[in-house]
């Protein structure tokens, strides 16, 4: 599954939280036609390792402590068939602040501690550097989203 974060406007957020056909159409439009690269962030498959590092080592959306747990899968889940996770603008500010304090050595320790047979990455130096590189991009994304006062929606399909 490939993961993407989107910093959505207040109007988009309201429609997405409506849960009707309009919300589904907007979600498809966001995923297919997003025009602002500064307010979106593709994490390819690194979202999996990142969530495990920020949480309890699993993909449990409730695993781990807020606010880091909300950087990827924590938050309000809006879809039953794949990940569509909503984080409010207030939570985005908290996540952005927490991500600023993450150091490479801390993330490496968490990465090396992943002990879940469901994690499919090789968990070697190359995999960690890939994860770290995506982390740096996610940290920048959350900073931009927080400055813009936007909520975030993460999707993985």
Notes on the protein architecture:
By secondary structure, the chain is α+β, with helices and mostly antiparallel strands. The protein has a single domain (3-156), classed as YfbM-like super family (Hypothetical protein yfbM fold, 3-Layer(aba) Sandwich), CATH 3.40.1760. Helices cover 48% and strands 15% of the residues. Helix 1 crosses helix 2 (21-33), helix 3 packs across helix 6 (125-148) and helix 4 (89-100) packs across helix 6. The longest helix is centred in the last third of the chain and has 24 residues, at 125-148. The radius of gyration is 15 Å and the shape is globular. The N and C termini lie close together (5 Å). The model has no long low-confidence stretch (mean pLDDT 95).
CATH class: Alpha Beta
The CATH architecture can be given as 3-Layer(aba) Sandwich
Assembly annotation: single chain
- CATH overall fold name: Hypothetical protein yfbM fold
Q: What structural category arises from helix and sheet content?
A: alpha+beta
- What is the rounded distance between the termini? 5 Å
Unreliable segments of 5+ consecutive residues: none
Number of domains: 1
Estimated radius of gyration: 15 Å
Averaged pLDDT, please? Answer: 95
Largest sheet: number of strands, sense, barrel closure: 5 strands, antiparallel
H/E element order: EHHEHEEHHHE
Beta strand count:
5
Measured as a percent range, the helix fraction is: 40-55%
Q: Choose one word for the global shape.
A: globular
Work out the helix count.
6
Report strand %: 15-25%
Strand order, biggest sheet? 2-1-5-4-3
CATH H-level superfamily title:
YfbM-like super family
Pfam families: DUF1877 (PF08974)
InterPro entries: DUF1877, YfbM-like_sf
